[in-house]
Amino acid sequence: MRPVSTRSGASAPARLSRPERVAEAIKQFVVDEGLAPGDRLPGEADLIARFGMAKSTIREAMRILEAQGLVKTRTGPGGGTFVHEVSRTRARALLANYFYFKNLTIADIYQLRRALEPELAASLAGRLDDAALDALTANFAAYDRPAATAEEERAQHVASLRFHAMLAEHADNPLLSFLIDFMASILSEITINRGLYAPPNPELWRKGREYQKRLVEALRDGDADAARETMAAHMDTANALMQVQEARAIQDFLAH
Amino acid sequence: MRPVSTRSGASAPARLSRPERVAEAIKQFVVDEGLAPGDRLPGEADLIARFGMAKSTIREAMRILEAQGLVKTRTGPGGGTFVHEVSRTRARALLANYFYFKNLTIADIYQLRRALEPELAASLAGRLDDAALDALTANFAAYDRPAATAEEERAQHVASLRFHAMLAEHADNPLLSFLIDFMASILSEITINRGLYAPPNPELWRKGREYQKRLVEALRDGDADAARETMAAHMDTANALMQVQEARAIQDFLAH
DNA sequence: CCCAATTTGTTCGTATGTATC
DNA sequence: AGATACATACGAACAAATTGG
Question: pTM for this structure?
Answer without folding.
Answer: 0.90
